[in-house]
Amino acid sequence: MELRNKKIIVTGSAQGIGASTVRAYVAAGAQVAAMDVDTDKGEAALAGLDGPGSAFFIRCNVGDRAEVDTAFDAAVKRLGGLDVLAHVAGVHRHAATHDVPDETLAWLFNVNVNGTIYTNGAAYRHMPQGGSIINFGSESGLTAEINNAVYGASKAAVHAWTRSVAREWGKQGIRLNAVLPYMVTPMYERFREALSDEDLAAHDKATAEQIPLGGKFGNADTDLAPVMVFLAGDGSRFITGQLLPVDGGLISVR
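-> structure tokens emitted (254 positions)
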């Protein structure tokens, strides 16, 4: 599980799963370039990190191809190479499915889909000796969910991209996998806030019934971070093209 001397980029690092991932990688000895569009939160998230590794912050809007390329070039130059990309950055917005605003549609797909393609491509160019790319999918991209179809569609695209590109880039020693987490995050909290009282009650009831391990969403630090360390390390060297739910048993992927 050690990541000593691993050179890693983490996107979406300012909060939630991204911040948790940075903490875990630094604790495991990695050198980390933490990226986010929010500079203030991104820099604050690096305060007080504990571990033999280290981290620095670079602002990056993953939905802007030129900005991604510039940020990755700067990060790799400072790191001295690139072994792992943990592409956590993503967005969510509630929208009525019968009338999705163009702005919402464009924003969700630009960040979630284009951002995955841009960051993965940039990482590929800096991994001539191979490496690991960890994308973020969602249970929403596999199943039918009320109130969440647009977000689910964007994540289904991430799944298809990850599976397909893993087959192509494996020849270069690059493995791609996607984590499908069910964690309490700021994004999830905003999703809850957007639901009506009736829909929220139904959501909580379904969660309690459908998640075998505890009946609730997980904790990013204790339940997801160890998986992120595993996927970044050499122990996962023969795993690629997989969708890996970390969700207490909510779904099975075949």
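DSSP finds eight helices and seven strands in the chain.
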